[in-house]
Amino acid sequence: MKFRLRSIQKKLLLILFLLPALIAQAAIGYEVSAPEPHTHYYNVKMRVTDYEKDYFDIQMPVWSPGSYLVREFAKNVEGLTATFNKKMLRSEKINKNTWRIYAEKANNVVINYKVYAFELSVRTSFVDASHAYFNGTSMFMYINELKKEPHNLTIIPFKDWKKVSTSLPKIEGKGFQYQAPNYDILVDSPVEIGNQDIFDFTASGVLHHVAMYGKGNYDVEKLKIDMGKIVEACTDVFGENPNKEYTFIIHNLTNGSGGLEHLSSTTLQVNRWTYEGNKYKGFLSLVAHEYFHLWNVKRVRPVELGPFDYNSENYTSLLWVMEGFTSYYDELLLYRAGIYTEKEIIRKFQGSVSNIENQPGNKVQPVAHSSFDAWIKAYRPNENSYNTTISYYSKGSVVANMLDLMIIKNTKGKKNLDNVMQYLYSEFYKKQDRGFTSAEMKSTLEKVSGLKMDDFFEKYINGTQTFDYSTVFGYAGLSVETAVNKDPSLGISESNNKIRRVNRGSSAYVGGLNVNDEILAIDGYRVHGNIRDFIDAKKVGDIVSLLISRDNIIQTMSFPLLEKGTTSYFIFNDTDKKNNVHQKWLSQK
To answer: Does the domain spanning 201-294 belong to CATH 1.10.390.10?
Structure first.
């Protein structure tokens, strides 16, 4: 009996050990097709297997990571149904982006729905007779409890479409079938479907795929060389490239809309004739910006930006680091790659300073607040935003520039902002596998620079004080001069004589002009899109009389002209001899 009891115990232990493997693992798969692409609809089939519940909820994200605005993707969903073995299951919508499926413990539930997709931007989805493009957040619903499980994707291209471009790993021998290790990776991998031109290049040991939709004046061989230089310059900052393969999806359009970063890919939308002259350098800057994000944002990130809550805003006060630092590097790296000359890169930094210092909102909104309020302000500007807000992109790039020079100066040329990025990458991403807090960002800057950052954060991150540009650029042997524009100005932006913006403190602001006022005449003379000609002919202090239409009521307003008052910043290198700060800051490899 004793021997037999031990034998039974061993068998029970063996069963308990094998039990997890014997229990079927829940799985989710999607099938995407567009049988009538000219109607702008996708058909999505979502299959949930071995998830035997009385009911479960599926949700559509309300936003897309990297674009900080609630976009309500559920608004484009139509005709959702759920079945088991072709038997209809009851389903109901329980809030704006959640559907409850009464599965009745079925082990194979198929959910079908349509998605209307006719917004061609880097953050949404689109399909027409020429091609299809989608971001997963606007296409795929999820089960919260299963987000960490593998998600399969099958794509059925329209009849004459032959190509699919995405960074998702392809299942060998299975046609256009792909597998993502979890939901986050699935929706972080945009997909281009059609007959796009595809070419490859290798840089920093990484194979890069480029999918070009739309005609343009691009030169493939030149792009391979220049994009390769940018990849290598970005990789040099961090010392390694975490990807084995990377995918660029590029849309050549009449009107571009920028780019959006992903873990192993990016989508860029540019004007189709952008591949020559200064426009081409602008394109390469966009490439550098989005590629730099594969580290800064996708791996080096604030704690609030992952794991994501797809149901609501994910607030962080650190977008000035994520987007601002990236905006600084997207120009600096073009210099390091040999695409910009030193004169050009200094002109870029000069322009960045003039840009923020002449926006009234720079003295109203701290850059940390700009980051936090991105959800309600950055993507929803109104006619007064110029007076009350500042971009965490543009202000953050100037902050990065100042920090870079301060670090180099205080470490006697031994360290720079690269070392800050390297520490964030190695410490928080690689060692701790997590994001960092605002306090940890500050302590990292202190650790690398040897400077106390309390005063810096109080004045420039959580405050709106102006940098001492002469001193900081002076570290690199550069001089800064300013010139105030004393010409008369109304201080408005207008289109076809209708006022679109009134600048705070300007003649129009003080004199009482409003947005949407239509200027009909100045000093008794009718204007036809030549308002500036009338103002340029006057002097500061002159009284100007405007005949305007406000809500179709004609009235006259008179007020004195004030000077424009904007300040232009000029940065000069007064000597051919470069000190150690200058050499560390602007060195080409």
So the answer is: yes
Residue with tokens 């739309």: 214
Contact 522, 537 (CB under 8 A): no
- The CATH number given to 304-477 is 1.10.390.10
| pLDDT tens digit sequence for 435-449 | 999 999 999 999 999
Helices (H), 294-391: 319, 326-336, 342-357, 367-372, 385-388
For CATH 2.30.42.10, list the domain ranges present in the chain: 488-565
* pTM for this model (two decimals): 0.94
Give CB contacts under 8 A, 24+ apart, made by 542-546.
542/488, 544/490, 544/507, 546/513, 546/519, 546/521, 546/522
pLDDT tens-place string over residues 129-188? 999 999 999 999 999 999 999 999 999 999 999 999 999 999 988 889 999 999 999 999
Q: What is the pLDDT of residues 536-568, one digit of tens each?
A: 999 999 999 999 999 999 999 999 999 999 999
pLDDT band at residue 238 using 50, 70 and 90 as cut-offs: very high
The answer on pLDDT for 488 being more than 70 is yes
379-405 average pLDDT score: 97
Distance CA 452, CA 178 (A): 49
Looking at residue 529, its pLDDT comes to: 85
Question: What is the band of 14 on the pLDDT scale with cuts at 50, 70, 90?
Answer: very low
Say if CB 344 and CB 335 are below 8 A apart. yes
State the pairing for strand pair 265-271/245-253: parallel
Residue 373 and residue 391 in contact, taking contact as beta carbons nearer than 8 Å: no
Domain with CATH 2.60.40.3650 in the chain: 27-195
Give burial (CB, 10 Å; 0-12/13-18/19+) of 558.
exposed
Q: Chain centroid to CA 478: how far?
A: 32
CB 75 within 8 A of CB 125: no
Burial class (CB in 10 A: 0-12, 13-18, 19+), 265: buried
- The residue-averaged pLDDT of 228-236 equals 98
User: Which CATH code fits 27-195?
Assistant: 2.60.40.3650
29 contacts 154 by C-beta, under 8 angstroms: yes
Q: Please classify residue 437 by burial: count the beta carbons closer than 10 Å to its beta carbon, then call 0-12 exposed, 13-18 middle and 19+ buried.
A: middle
Strands 91-95 and 132-134 come out as unpaired
How distant is the alpha carbon of residue 38 from its chain centre? 29
Contact of 285 with 331, CB cutoff 8 Å: yes
Q: Which CATH class is domain 488-565?
A: mainly beta
Q: What are the residue ranges of CATH 1.10.390.10 in the chain?
A: 201-294, 304-477
Q: How do residues 493-535 score in pLDDT, each as one tens digit?
A: 999 999 999 999 999 999 999 999 999 999 999 998 899 999 9
Q: Scan for tokens 């004459």, then name that residue.
A: 160
Q: How many residues does the chain have?
A: 589
Q: How far is 501 from 406, CA to CA, in rounded Å?
A: 37
Q: Which is nearest to 356 in space by CA: 402, 319, 393? A: 393
| Kind of pairing between the strands at 553-560 and 525-526 | unpaired
Query: Omega of the bond prior to 307 within 30 degrees of 0, cis?
Result: yes
Cα separation of 56 and 361, whole Å? Answer: 47
CB-count burial class (<10 Å; 0-12, 13-18, 19+) for 141: buried
% of the chain exceeding 70 in pLDDT: 96
